[in-house]
Design brief:
25% strand, 129 residues, 2 helices, alpha+beta
Amino acid sequence: MGGGRIGSLPVVTGDATLLRQVFANLVGNALKFSRGRRPAVIEIAASADDHAAEAVVSVRDNGAGCNSKYTDKLFGVFQRLHRVKEFEGTGIGLANVRRLVARHGGRVWAEGRSDQGATFYFSLPKRPG
């Protein structure tokens, strides 16, 4: 069994269905790569800077992690840092995240360390007003 924490999330303008897909892909990855941890912990948080032009959301897990040298490859189509035998998947989930976030005017990036978890970030322009 594991735990999860969700911080307060920002208000942004965008397609609700597509943004739900971003969360589904990121949380799905966190679940997949932390399922062997006891306890598995997944945290969703957002930046608290009210004066910033963009909101930054993060999904962090304590799972398998990745070598930070290769995090830029994670968002490419069919780019994998783990063998299919270890973790199932098609290799397009994070590429979809990048595409959907870019469609909303945002960006994506990741940080991780092998066997110490990973954090995936995306930014979106804040809703005016």
